[in-house]
Amino acid sequence: MIKKILATILFICFFSLNSNAEIDKIEIKDPWIRKPLGSSKISGAYMEIVNNNNFPIEIISFTTDIAEISEIHDMTHDNGIMRMRRVDSLIIEKNNNVILSPQGKHIMLINLTTKLSNKEKIPMKILIKNHPPIKIQALVKTN
Ligand SMILES: [Cu+2]
């Protein structure tokens, strides 16, 4: 546990020297969007969000121009079957993080309005309750 905390602190120090993605105490790490297969109009966006504040934050939505609909999804096990379900918001506890990944919580992008190319950077906005929106660039890749 201590080891993990120390590693995180080191990483944050390193990160704050090198990243402009940090806005006050919320960090967005490695945002990416999966390149859809074939002509699929559905994709997912993933990233790690770190809340270094001494209070929880609530993410209301992730917006982007490349999809008509953007939803926050969670995965649940239902008799051994993984199912996605939409959630209203994403709460990140104080001094904690949430990892959005293909295996877990994620951002579902529905009705894509444009074709995505590998290595393209897609602007996204993260809307957080009582906090200015955070602008990020998500990298398009296969996985
Ligand atoms: Cu989903």
Classified in CATH, the superfamily is PCu(A)C copper chaperone
**How many H/I helical runs?**
1
Total domain units: 1
Shape: globular
What name does the CATH topology carry? Immunoglobulin-like
Spans of at least 5 consecutive residues with low confidence? 13-23
Structural class: mainly beta
Q: What small molecules are bound in this structure?
A: copper (II) ion
Considering DSSP H and I runs of 4 or more, what fraction of the residues is helical? 10-25%
Strand content: over 45%
DSSP, total strands: 10
Cα gyration radius (Å): 16 Å
CATH class term: Mainly Beta
Topology record:
Layout (H helix, E strand, L loop, with lengths): L1 H17 L7 E9 L7 E10 L5 E7 L3 E12 L2 E7 L2 E3 L3 E5 L5 E7 L8 E8 L2 E11 L2
Bound molecules: copper (II) ion (CU).
